[in-house]
Write a structure and sequence with these properties.
The chain is of the alpha+beta class and 947 residues long. It is 35% helix and 12% strand. The longest helix has 45 residues. The protein starts with 30 loop residues before the first helix and ends in a 38-residue tail after the last helix. GO terms for molecular function: dioxygenase activity; metal ion binding.
Length: 947
């Protein structure tokens, strides 16, 4: 049984306030419920270590660092030494272990009586001090100094503290690592930190009980890691971990630590065989071969993504589950989706995830039940019913009224009835609806959200006209667009020609033509969904806002037996009633295209999916004492666990994406196509991305080195501030460890890490352009800053605004279910129904009640910060580098700059000259504000892709 953790508020005993995790098991066909229930283990919360404090009563402050030889130690604190100390130094190791919240799971631990007995006799935690130096006479590693730790403090609401005393002989050298063995019979430990202190009397700076926990440390090691039980009783086997004291480049590793560095890396790589267990800490690669479920249902067979030219994709963490009997290429979905033990959720994260999941699932399910839903494809009967989701709430149904959801929700409903919420559920009103209930109808808001909404990565500059497809016309039909200069110039009011607009960089576009067109007929073969290729054109007006000009929808030529020719049509704003309603429907199709692109490409592919290979490669090739590992590690927090949950119930066959987004069962194939055509590493930094899309041009004279094509582009304006802050911090950090190009090129671990990212983690792109050489401090800093940007700010920009922009689904429907009524050959019955009741035709095009409310619930969950969130530049995740003052100072400047950026963003949001972020009915753009409290705030940049 895992130890459940609660963040400590007792700063006298703990300096990081990190958290651990619990084993929570369950199952549900709904993603949110499954996500909460399937996480079988939770992980650490990296946090800042308080590396000591000044001594009082006139005593000299003990300098933080490795345990010194007796000579240097005596010079630091002579009042503590007598003549007998000339031969040895007495030090105490203080280990801090997180414990169960309130002790409520204490009685459930297996073999707890045995573990308690071991604690009582002081044989539950075995510590060994490792010298950094080799023995001068033998040239071999010095024997470790060994001692059992005894428990000195136990607070069920806080931590357990263990101490072990050591006599460090003269000439032992600096302590470079501590070996920890968990001698409990079956209970894993979450080790928060280890400090080496000089013992003091109870009258000095020690705790009231005489323990050494409060003494100023000679050495402080932040661990924040699970140590599995040594159930076999072999101190050199399972349950033994090494924790290093200081960061070192491989070539600078002290001789006494080299074998430990090598062995720890080898253990984390594993041997690539067998099924992984929940307590493992092994990192290995596999393809996305676990999305389908052919053993359960033949209709749920899906292609393997990754490892082929047809479906290239990044790699994910290997679980080693058995292969399917019906499709030997597909991994079965039995059991939990393994992630290495330290990658799982903390308890705080898990509890928040569970509570929010409960509310979200019910909010999605209850409206469907209240409308006596039988058909899951039933549309909303009116916009009034949609509004009631936010205005009046809905009463909880009885279990017998649950219909097809009966097997999923009864226990959850009972839990909610027992809570203060009583019998009413209410979706929070999204901020855009609070600001302007009818904003979703306005073309201006449609255009504004391309710059300041939840997918600001899609809009691009029009650099050539007329538009022309790059797809084969023999297969898809004529390549030329139906959007003509005459159409655009009319909509621009003839203020200029299209040629002039292109030359002056005044035309912009959402281009979902070539990406979607090859999938149109595949998607249309499914029921209750449809698809077009689309182009949407905007004009930059004199006041810096965008005017929506035209939308082109294209259906490609179809193969036999239908063999229909290509159909395409351009829709524009109109005062004609029929054309006006067609325009609204065309906008809904484009919004559905943008929703799919956002979720599958901008969000999932470019952050969650692309980052996982960095995490695996870093753990396999960079020692935990490597400075680059320590820099990157906070930016990997929770990513592997949330990705595993996504593979379990979000992007899998029959998951939320397939059920609720237009591409349906072809969603992940489309994501693979986007990876093949669009993704490259050197375009993932913000400046490079803006330049690639034509939204900026390189300009060394500009503040951020680029000049924006649209000056009032809220995401880019704020994002560049954050990018620059990240890059400056990383450059300072890299400079501390890499003085020149030779140090970078000669770092064997670093080069192995980068080679593995390219050749294995992103192996399907290894021959593609875009991979920089890590051969100088500058190239290294830029690559690291890019990874950090993607994991933190890029993800925040496309994640935490989801509910406020798409929670009211008419603004951003996830799916368009019906074809345009004028598509040829025209369905006369559908056209007549449209003319008779265009309002109803539009609602039938929107997601069904089940789809809409389920997506609303998912977005509610994904947009919510957990209480233990760690934010970019936050001091809870400040780096520790063996007391390196330069690193601490640089990080302090990073923190201060991000706080300054918050004020700049607030000022911009109050500036009425910036019409894309300030004005009547406009939601202020806050997604690049670095810090936030818990909950649904539409701001805050977590360190990592954590949800």
């Amino acid at each position: 049984m895992a130890l459940l953790i609660k963040p400590s508020t007792n700063t006298a005993q703990t300096c990081c306030g990190c958290s651990s995790a619990s084993a929570v098991r369950g199952s549900s066909p709904l993603f949110l419920l499954a996500a909460a229930a399937s996480s079988s283990s939770l992980s650490r919360r990296p946090s800042s270590v308080q590396l000591g404090r000044a001594r009082r009563r006139g005593k000299k402050k003990i300098v933080v660092g490795c345990v010194a030889s007796s000579k240097s130690a005596r010079s630091e604190a002579p009042s503590r030494r007598d003549s007998s100390a000339m031969a040895a130094e007495r030090v105490t190791a203080v280990a801090t272990i997180k414990v169960t919240v309130g002790g409520f799971l204490n009685s459930l631990r297996p073999s707890r009586a045995i573990d308690n007995f071991k604690d009582l006799i002081g044989r539950s935690l075995y510590l060994e001090l490792v010298s950094s130096q080799l023995d001068a006479k033998t040239g071999q590693e010095k024997p470790t100094l060994r001692s059992y730790a005894h428990q000195v403090a136990d607070n069920d609401d806080d931590v357990v503290t263990y101490e072990a005393d050591f006599d460090v002989p003269a000439g032992f050298g600096d302590v470079g690592a501590v070996l920890v063995t968990n001698e409990h019979h079956s209970t894993e430990m979450f080790l928060q930190d280890i400090k080496l202190v000089v013992p003091s009397s109870a009258s000095d700076d020690s705790d009231d009980d005489g323990s050494a926990a409060a003494a100023s440390p000679l050495l402080a090691i932040r661990c924040n890691s699970w140590v599995e039980p040594n159930s076999g009783g072999d101190g050199d086997a399972a349950g033994k971990r090494v924790f290093f004291a200081k960061p070192y480049l491989p070539s600078q590793t002290p001789a006494g630590l080299r074998s430990y560095r090598k062995k720890d890396l080898e253990e984390k790589r594993g041997d690539g065989r067998g099924q992984r267990k929940s307590g493992d800490r092994i990192y290995d690669y596999d393809t996305y071969n676990d999305l389908g479920d052919p053993d359960n249902n033949a209709d749920k067979a899906r292609p393997v993504l990754g490892g082929t030219q047809e479906f290239p994709y990044p790699r994910r963490c290997r679980t080693g589950r058995p292969m399917s009997t019906k499709d030997p290429k597909t991994e079965t979905r039995k059991g939990d989706n393994y992630v290495p033990r330290d990658e799982a959720f903390s308890e705080e994260k898990q509890l928040q995830f569970s509570v929010t999941t409960l509310q979200s699932v019910l909010q999605a399910a209850v409206p469907a039940v209240q409308s006596t839903l039988i058909d899951p494809n039933l549309s909303f009967p009116s916009f009034f019913v949609i509004d009631k989701l936010f205005e009046d709430g809905v009463k909880l149904p009885k279990a017998e009224d649950l219909g097809f959801l009966r097997g999923v929700l009864p226990r959850l409903l009972q839990r909610l009835r027992d809570s203060p919420a009583d019998n009413v559920l209410l979706f929070d009103t999204p901020k855009n609806v609070q600001k302007d209930k009818f904003g979703w109808l306005r073309d201006e808001e449609f255009a504004r959200e391309t710059l300041a909404g939840m997918n600001p990565y899609a809009i691009e500059l029009v650099r050539e006209f007329p538009f022309k497809s790059n797809l084969d016309p023999a297969v898809y039909g004529p390549a030329e667009s139906a959007i003509t200069a005459e159409v655009l110039e009319k909509q621009m009011g003839h203020v200029m020609t299209v040629a002039d607009a292109v030359k002056q960089k005044r035309l912009f576009m959402l281009d979902y033509h070539d990406l979607y067109l090859p999938y149109v007929h595949k998607i249309r073969a499914q029921e209750h969904t449809t698809m077009y290729g689309s182009r949407t054109v905007f004009f930059l007006t004199g006041d810096g806002t965008l005017q929506l000009l035209a939308i082109e929808l294209t259906r490609p030529a179809s193969p036999p037996p239908s063999a229909q020719p290509q159909w395409r049509r351009v829709f524009t704003p109109s005062t004609d009633t029929t054309e006006s309603w067609l325009w609204r429907m065309a906008k809904s199709h484009v919004r559905a295209h943008d929703s799919g692109h956002h979720e599958l490409v901008t969000h999932w592919l470019r952050t969650h999916c692309a980052v996982e290979p960095y995490i695996i490669a870093a753990n396999r090739q960079l020692s935990e004492m490597h400075p680059v590992y320590r820099l990157l590690h906070p930016h990997f927090r929770y990513t592997m666990r949330i990705n595993a949950l996504a593979r379990s119930a979000l992007i899998n066959a029959g998951g939320i994406i397939e059920l609720s987004f237009s591409p349906g069962k072809h969603a992940m194939e489309l994501s693979s196509a986007a990876y093949d055509k669009l993704w490259r590493f050197d375009a993932e930094s913000l400046p490079a991305d803006l330049v690639r899309r034509g939204m900026a041009e390189v300009d060394p004279t500009s503040e951020h080195g680029v000049k924006l094509a649209i000056q009032d582009y809220p995401f880019a304006n704020d994002g560049l501030l954050v990018w620059d802050a990240i890059e400056r911090w990383v450059e300072a950090y890299v400079a501390r460890f890499y003085p020149d190009a030779g140090a970078v090129a000669g770092d064997a671990e670093l080069q192995a890490f980068w080679a593995e990212v390219i050749n294995v983690g992103h192996g399907d792109k290894k021959g593609a352009p875009g991979w920089p050489e890590l051969d100088t401090p500058a190239s290294l800093a830029h690559a690291l800053a890019t990874m950090i940007w993607v994991a933190s700010a890029h993800h925040a920009a496309v994640n935490f605004g989801q509910y406020d922009f798409a929670g009211y689904f008419p603004n951003r429907p996830s799916i368009a279910r019906t074809r345009m009524p004028v598509e040829e050959p025209v369905d006369s019955e559908a056209l007549a129904a449209f003319v008779e009741d265009p309002d109803n035709a539009l609602r039938e095009c929107f997601p069904s009640q089940v789809q809409a409310t389920l997506v609303m619930a998912v977005l509610d969950l994904l947009s919510t910060h957990s209480p233990d969130e760690e934010y970019l530049g936050g001091m809870e995740a400040a780096p520790w580098s063996g007391g390196d003052a330069g690193v601490r100072a640089a990080y302090g400047e990073f923190n201060a700059r991000l706080k300054e950026i918050e004020g700049i963003i607030d000022g911009r949001n109050a500036d009425r000259r910036l019409k894309n972020r300030c004005g009547a009915g406009i939601v202020p753009y806050q997604l690049m504000k670095p810090f936030s409290g818990p909950g649904l705030t539409s701001k805050g940049i977590p360190n990592s892709t954590s949800i």
